[in-house]
Design brief:
Blueprint lengths: L1 H9 L4 H16 L3 H26 L7 E6 L1 H6 L4 H12 L3 E5 L2 H4 L9 H12 L3 E6 L13 H4 L6 H18 L5 E6 L18 H14 L5 E4 L16 E5 L2 E4 L6 E4 L4 H15 L3 E7 L13 H7 L2 H13 L4 E5 L1 H10 L4 H11 L4
Parallel strand pairs: 1-2, 1-10, 2-3, 3-4, 4-5, 5-6, 6-9, 9-10
Antiparallel strand pairs: 7-8
């Protein structure tokens, strides 16, 4: 105790003094044999972790009434064999979603150079308006759903990141924004989905260069300065260092996936705690001064094959009614208010093709108890 008092009295408290105090406190432990010392270290680590968890609970409490949104991909709905328009209307009318993230896939909107077809996306925004819903548009080269990076064949024939290719990309993005920026149903943009995720996606050229991301962000803000432009972090991890600094950050939260990262493939439950996400949110709010939302909360299977090729039993290994409820509860514990759910096409597929209302009803129940 004398040494600790001397340290505290010698200078103002700082990191160096804290380290010296810890060394003094641990000195008796460090003199023990290793087989006695390490169990004590483990107990100390557990106490620190529990204390940190308690502190995070106090700083960021659980969300009791989340604000739910849903992502919708017309091509993926078709891939599952759904009537995509009926699927979309069911999300609005039956499930009751009032926040939608819609895609502006380059290959769909500009199938040939300079010729645009907004028919299907115009219909989606018109239906959203009819039901009093609001839309966030995903824009850019990288957008949700495999292969993550989307481009028409004529653009894929150009060298990626070449001046010709980037000019074509910027022209497409400009046309999309100018087409929709006068629509009051549109409330925000989500630029380049998981732009720095190098571990997933079939993207030519890999991760987008910072220079292009910064240019695109500034371009979107210049074309439509009235709406926020959000970006998502790379995956379950990551902190947004550097530029650009969007108006808000999206987290992806996946709980059970089929891992192909290692030579042996297997189902993996991510060993990530809710307070880890809370700490990330707290850091972003206080360091970057930006809000955080969940842009993808996994509520659909992630198996060894495309979902439409999985048996029901195989689908249920990574996502079932019980896992959906666990994931919704996990998301509430993060303290993040706005949560875009991921899997609206799959819930409808299970409902209409397998006569299984379980997944659909889990989502309906969650919306009925939320602050929608």
């Amino acid at each position: 105790m004398y040494k600790i008092k001397k340290i505290l009295g010698s200078a103002k408290a700082g990191p160096r003094q804290v380290r010296r105090i810890f060394r003094c406190l641990l000195a008796p432990v460090r003199r023990l044999r290793w087989w006695l010392r390490w169990p004590i270290y483990l107990v100390i680590a557990a106490v620190i972790a529990l204390s940190l968890s308690w502190l995070v609970d106090q700083l960021i409490p659980q969300v009791n009434e989340p604000i739910y949104g849903v992502s919708f991909s017309e091509p993926y709905s078709k891939q599952l064999g759904n009537d995509w328009q009926a699927n979309y209307i069911a999300l609005l009318k039956d499930a009751g979603f009032r926040k939608l993230r819609l895609m502006t896939y380059w290959e769909n909107l500009e199938p040939t150079p300079g010729h645009y077809d907004f028919t299907d996306l115009d219909w989606q925004l018109a239906q959203a308006k009819a039901y009093g819903a609001h839309v966030s548009l995903a824009i850019g080269y990288r957008q949700p759903r495999w292969p993550e990076c989307h481009e028409p064949d004529w653009a894929a024939a150009m060298p990626v990141e070449s001046q010709q290719w980037t000019s074509a990309l910027y022209s497409y993005m400009t046309t999309v924004i100018n087409h929709y920026k006068s629509d009051p149903t549109l409330i925000s943009y989500q630029l380049e989905n998981e732009a720095e995720n190098s571990l997933f996606g079939g993207c030519r050229g890999g991760v987008a260069p910072k220079s292009r991301l910064t240019y695109e962000f500034n371009m979107v803000k210049r074309l439509d300065p009235t709406r926020p432009t959000y970006m998502s972090l790379s995956d379950e991890h990551g902190f947004p260092f550097g530029q650009p600094t969007p108006d808000g950050y999206g987290f992806s939260i996946y709980r059970v996936v089929y891992s192909t990262t290692f030579p042996i493939h297997f189902y993996l439950t991510y060993p990530i705690t809710d307070w880890y996400h809370r700490l990330r949110m707290l850091a972003i709010i206080h360091i970057k001064h930006r809000p955080v939302f969940i842009h993808e909360l996994q509520l659909e299977p992630w198996g060894p094959k495309d979902t439409q090729d999985l048996t029901v039993a195989e689908q249920n290994r990574s996502m079932n009614v019980q896992q959906m409820q666990k994931s919704l509860e996990f998301a509430r514990k993060t303290g993040i208010q706005t949560e875009y759910l991921w899997g609206g096409e799959w819930w409808y597929w299970r409902l209409t093709h397998f006569n299984d209302p379980g997944p659909w009803n889990v989502v309906k129940d969650a919306l009925q108890s939320s602050s929608q």
